[in-house]
Design goal:
Length: 190
């Protein structure tokens, strides 16, 4: 997504784009701030420009719950990306036929970097780190995430931000379910 010319070539003859590329992990974004900006913000603009250039009909960008009131760079870059996509349907709609919408959801259960596999890997140490004892997470299965994207593809007109109603849970409840005898280390918000 960081190479607009390559994207323009790759999108030739494409009708639908689901934009899922991002530097997604909070510590990686904090440690490499400009890499996060180049991928998550400039990359988003490259997807927009390439889609318009090729006459793509619909673009659905995947976002994160961390883009709502962001407290870290990852969330801030995804909020900027969301704004670019939502505003592009309004800004370019009179000149071009491409519609842009965003699907924003929480943690994908069992995905790389999600909390359950993370806790399972640390279970044998007897200690599980949590950011805060008050932390709540939103969770979605991969199947429900795909269904939400398909719903957005079928129902979007352009400029929408789709946010599914998904279950939330307290991080301490998950930690105790994974390892009830483990000590909890409060490490603070990253």
């Amino acid at each position: 997504v960081r190479d607009v010319d390559r994207l323009k070539t790759a999108m030739s003859g494409v009708d639908i784009v689901v934009h899922a590329a991002a530097l997604k992990q909070v510590p990686a974004a904090e440690y490499n701030p400009f890499e996060a900006i180049k991928t998550n913000v400039i990359g988003a603009q490259n997807v927009i420009e390439s889609s318009i250039h090729n006459g793509v009909k619909k673009v659905i960008a995947l976002s994160t719950d961390k883009a709502s009131s962001p407290i870290n760079l990852y969330g801030a870059t995804k909020l900027a990306s969301d704004k670019l996509f939502v505003s592009s349907s309004r800004s370019y709609s009179t000149k071009h036929k491409t519609s842009f919408s965003v699907v924003r959801y929480g943690n994908v259960m069992g995905s790389n970097g999600s909390v359950i596999p993370f806790f399972l890997n640390l279970k044998d140490t007897g200690r599980l780190p949590v950011t805060s004892t008050k932390m709540t997470r939103f969770n979605i299965s991969i199947e429900d995430g795909v269904e939400m994207v398909l719903y957005a593809l079928e129902n979007s007109w352009g400029g929408e931000l789709f946010v599914p109603k998904i279950p939330s849970y307290k991080i301490l409840d998950v930690a105790k379910a994974v390892c009830s005898e483990c000590e909890i280390d409060v490490v603070g918000i990253r």
